[in-house]
Every structure is written in C-alpha cells, then in structure tokens.
Amino acid sequence: MINVVKLGGDIILNKKLLIYSLKNFSKLDGYKIIVHGGGKIADLVSKKMGYNIKIINGRRITDKTTLEIVVMTYSGLINKKIVSKLQSIGLNPIGFSGADGNLVKSYKRSIKKIDYGNVGNLTSINTDLIKSLFRIGIIPVLSPITHDGNGNLLNTNADTIASYLSISLSKTYKVILSYCFNKLGVLKNLKDENSYYSKIEETFFQKLKNKKIINKGMIPKLENAFYALKNGVYKVTISHPNYLNHPTKKTILCLG
Q1: CA-based R_g, the chain, Å
Q2: pLDDT tens by residue, 174-183
Q3: CB distance 238 to 17 below 8 Å
C-alpha cells in the first residue's frame, strides 16, 4: 500500500501543525510520499519582494518573475523545511522538484480564455524512480515545480500532481490519497468550522460549484480528487491531519 499525502500551505505556515501532521504521516502503514504546495508562503515572499501576485479562479498566474519566486519558495525554502522536519522525527526523506530525476514532466498550458503563464500540464511521472526510492527506504518529498524536457521549469498545481502521481502508482499498488489542510473537511459555511460535508458525490459537487458554495482553490482540489477515484485510486480523503490515520471516520470528507 502507498499513502500519497498532499500538504497544504496553511499547514506549512503553522509550525506546530506541520510537526503534528508529519508525526501522523510517519505512523502511516506502507510506503509514503509527500506532495506539498505553499501558495500562501509564495504570496508572502512575493509581497516582501514588492511584487504583486495575480490569481484567477483559484489558480496563480505565473509570469517570469512569479516563476522565479515559486521555484525558490517551493523547491527551496518549503521543500527543505519539510525534509528537515521529517529527519527530526526519524524518517529518511529526499526532496525533489519534478525536474530532478525526470520525476514529473509537463508541457506549458496553452492559452484559451486565460493566459496562466508558465504553468504546466502533466505528461508523465517517473514511477520507476519512486519505486526504487521506496525499496531503499527513502521517502520522496515532491514540490510542485515540473519541467518540459527542454530546459524550462513550470509551476504546476500540487493537487493535480498528487492526483496523477496516485493514479500512476495505483497501477502497481493500492493507493490512498489524502489532501490535508487546516479544516476538518470541505465546509458548507466558511464561518462555521464544524459545517463540513461528510461525503460528496461528484454530481453534488457540480451543483455546489455552480451555486458557488464551493469555489476558489477548493475547486481544483475536488476535481483532482474525483479524477483520481475514477482512474484507479483506492480512496481519497480531504481533511485535517488529525485524521490521516483514520480514513474512514465520519468527521472527514471521504470520497469513494
């Protein structure tokens, strides 16, 4: 079995919650891999540098300067922070970007209604490398920076990477994909922390999206969750890291 855990930026920003999350992660059975985001941290770095960010429909517009910022932030600051914390609790991780070991390859997203800039759509994942790392006791920690094979780095949605990675690994292993963030689950009311959905069917999600009850960054997260389920992933959860070791409890959104 493989546990693919995607950590959200709110968790990474909170020192205590990050350590708590990683300790729960360390107790998971089977092989383990972390995919992390960190958009809010990239926002803070951008502001410190005096650069304004732009987000449309929950997705970042990645111009040349923004790409440089997210590469430094995701594959440098955040990735190594997570790696060092995992080392401190007795695990042996190695941090990667998608360019390292040809781990995640992508192509630049074509311009349709919106020009997202230097953003990647996934084409392949080097699961042979991941399996080799598992066999020698290494826990991969993957940042959401991919490459196109022509020397260009691309900013890629971490939820999408986690979904496609889980699908690729599910051809060989039973895979549980866990999207961890600082809420109990997907909230019905953003002002009420306890108003989460215990389960969401895809048709119901579409209705909630159309009514704009679910919006912004939660939309790609749920879209990727459903896509993973339809393509071989055993189970997907979206919840607080409290429940990393309890994927069937009613207190979390459990898809599938």
Answers
A1: 17
A2: 999 999 887 6
A3: no
Query: What residues form DSSP beta bridges with 176?
Result: 3, 235
Show the tokens assigned to 165: 């990675």
Cα angle vertex 41, ends 40, 45, to 5°? 120
Q: Token digits for 240?
A: 């607080």
CB distance 155 to 210 below 8 Å: no
CA 138 to chain CA centroid, Å, is 19
Residues 109-150 pLDDT 10s: 998 888 899 999 999 999 999 999 999 999 999 999 999 999
Q: Could you tell me how many residues make up the chain?
A: 256
Establish how many alpha carbons lie within 13 A of residue 131's alpha carbon, considering only the half-sphere containing its beta carbon.
Answer: 10
**107: three-class secondary structure by DSSP:** strand
pTM for this entry: 0.90
Quickly count: other Cβ atoms within 10 Å of residue 148's Cβ: 18
